[in-house]
Structures are given as C-alpha cells and as structure tokens.
Amino acid sequence: MGSAKIGVGTQLRGWDAAxxxxxxxxxxxxxxxxxxxxxxRAPDWSRLHARLNRLxxxxxxxxxxxxxxxxxxxxxxxxxxxxxxxxxxxxxxRLPVNAGWQGLLDDARRMxxxxxxxxxxxxxxxxxxxxxGEQSAFLLKLHHSIADxxxxxxxxxxxxxxxxxxxxxxxxxxxxxxSEEVSVTDVTIANLTDNIKWGAELAVSSVRGxxxxxxxxxTDPTQTWSRVWDTVSSIGRFTAVxxxxxxxxxxxxxxxxxxxAFNLPFAALxxxxxxxxxxxxxxxxxxxxxxxxxxxxxxxxxxDELRINVPISLRxxxxxxxxxxxxxxxxxxxxxxxxxxxxxxxxxxxxxxxANWRGEPALRLADPLAEVSWFVPVPLLxxxxxxxxxxxxxxxxxxxxxxxxxxxxxxxxxxxxxIGAAVNVTMVTYDGTAYVGISADDRAVPDLxxxxxxxxxxxxxxxxxxxxxxx
Length: 471
Prior knowledge:
By secondary structure, the chain is of the alpha+beta class. The protein contains 13 helices and 16 strands. The protein has 2 domains: 6-167, Chloramphenicol Acetyltransferase; 257-397 and 413-469, Nonribosomal peptide synthetase, condensation domain (Chloramphenicol Acetyltransferase). It has helices at 14-25, 45-58, 86-89, 100-113, 149-159, 184-219, 221-239, 266-274, 280-298, 343-358, 366-372, 378-386, 448-463; strands at residues 10-11, 32-39, 64-67, 77-80, 90-94, 123-129, 136-143, 257-265, 305-313, 329-337, 390-395, 403-404, 407-416, 423-430, 433-441, 468-469. The radius of gyration is 23 Å and the shape is globular.
C-alpha cells in the first residue's frame, strides 16, 4: 500500500512495523543485525565506496528514512531521504596496535549497541584495518525491520564480487530513486489513507470469511469447524505469553550483550544430518541443545527444556514478498529438550518440533497478528520476548569465495542482537565453512567464555570434527 505522492513512500506493515516499534520503545529489544566479513587485506577504498553507492541503487531501502505522522500511533513510512549522503553511513578506521580479534568484536559490540539515527536510513558500515597479518574487516549493520538474515545475504551478494577484478558483466545499476520533501501533514494523511484501505480490506476479508464459514457449516460442518478450531488454537499457541524464561541460570536481562564466534567444516555438520536422513538445521539445533545442556550442568543444574525461537523463512510461500529485501520470516517458539538425550534423539526432536510449527496455521498469520500488536503495550511484548531462552537461526550463504573491492572474504560471521532472549546463536555457511556468531545478554551470561566452550563442544559432538576458534 502507498500513496500516489512519491515523497511519502510506503508504510511499514506487519512484522516489519512491529519490529521497529518494539526496538524503538525498549532498549532490551533493539534489533541490529551485523554481518562481519574478514578480508585477506584492505580493499581499495574508492572502489568499495563506489560499490556501496551502487548497492544503494539496487536496494532502495538503503536510501530510505523513516517518516512519522502527527499521531504517533501509526507505523513509520519509509521514503527516499532527500539528504542521503553515503559518507554519513560509511566510515573507515584502523584498530589500535595489538587490539586483534577481541578488539574487533568489541568494536562490533559498540556498533550494535549504539542505536540508529531514526531520521536517516537504517544502516551503517565500517571498514576496519589493522588486524593481524594485514587482514581487515568489513562490518555492515542493518535494522531488523528492513532485513532478516536471508535478506542480509541477498544484500551481501549484491555488494561482493566473484573475483579480485571488477566483474565485467555486472548489470548497470538503475538511477538513484527520486525523493522530495514532505510535511508531517502529508505523512499523516498518507498513513490515514493506508489505514482506511487496510481496514476496508480487512472488512472485506472478514465478510468473505464469514460467508465461507456459513457456507461450509451447511456443506461440511465437521471439517469447517474443525479447521476453525485448529486456527484459533494455533493463534493461541502462537501468541501465548509465558511467565518467564525456562532457564534458572540464564534468567537475567539487561540492555547490553557481548559477541563471540567460531567456525567448523560445513561438510561435517551436513554429513551428520545426512547420515540420519535429517536436515542441517536439525543438526544445528541438536548441537545447541548439547552445548546448553553442558552449560547448565556446569552450573550444577539439569534443565529438561529451554524455550527456543527459530525463525522460519516464508520465502517462496504464496503471498510472500519474493525479491524484496525485507523480512519474510515468522518465528516458531517452543520448548526444546536438551537433557538426557543422544545426538540422534536431539536431532529427531528438532526435526519433529520445527515440522509441527511449520504446519501451524498461525505461522502464516504473522503479519496480521503483528498488526494487532499495535494495540498491545510494549512492556507486555517485552515480557513475551524476554521469556525466551535462546534464538537460533541457520542461514544458507554463498558456497563459493567472494571478493570485496579486490580483497578476498576469508570468513563471514553473523552477529545479531539478543532481542530479549538470553542468547542468540546464528549460523551462516560460506565457501564450505559454517560460521557461528553468538550474542549473549551480559546479565544472563556473565561467563561468556564458558558458554562458548560448551557450545563448541556441542557442535564437535554432533559434527565429529574440530570446531575452530574465530581468531
């Protein structure tokens, strides 16, 4: 939906709008996504600058700023910033001598914990030089309301190249998107117009649903009302608010978190899954279960289950926003067994639980349910988010080496905010290696090194291979 006036852009809706609202209202729910690329050397700066500018042509969301109406109740609109300046979003600096990998993670942490300027496009990037061996790093930070993990990979594929030289057959970027100044009144009117259209569409859909229900009640009442009950029950499970986290150890929540990372051969993890006729995601979740079980036992506690969030991609589903760099994801949220199980039992449990959630009718109602969340106080939404122990996401990445302005990418680590959970663990695969990024709430996990050691052991148990340090 959008207005005919170019300057007012398009209103954030559904999941994107809810993510923006909660991240803006509660610092515990800030939702920065950072992609960390380790490069074999420093890329050519002028060439990198040109590629970033080119990227914003292909991905107009990177040139769009939020616009706010007068009421403050509607979601913001994203419209092209008439004052867009690439240099405001991109910087270059050198690490202090001997800062090393930990210094890089510390800088990534500061970058993630610093909120966005909500009057400019919701992203920033940094080229960081001075890593050991003349290596460098590139950090790309995105607001979760404009990109999920898969969208971040899509953006990276538009930025990186297949070789050290400039790709000779790259498509010519489109011209810079048009922009114009708009007033608060323009934005308010556009929001009102969109909300009326949305309400009318909702009313039409409700009438059609009621008519279909009435018709089904006569032609096949048993199946019709069974389907209605299944949907209502599913919505209840999807929206249930728990009293608190299931972990007695990772119970605290604060506004800061720390990062850690490691990697392992992807073939080993994939082989562990394939040998059991299961998926890589099943192996990934089983590795986490083993790691968190060990971590709780380290603290003298046996916990049967943890509440886990697993993003499920809806890309390719009917009605998704294929091709858009945005969120096309819903969240499965369920208790996951971690104690007293073998690796195979953990993998089978992961497979069954995720499959069950994929079949939930409410899963594909995430956007409409997120619209309703505007009538729910943010503290209640924060309580729901903070009752989760772990968020676990597995994102397939490019299987071949990539280059950035002449520099080869050696590693690609995903560093995602905790967004209310005690720990976020995200895995991205790149060029035959699985890269695991961890963020842990400082209050929930004051001993991050110990947690990382246990998670590494969990992956080694599943993959049967060496889990390597990120340094």
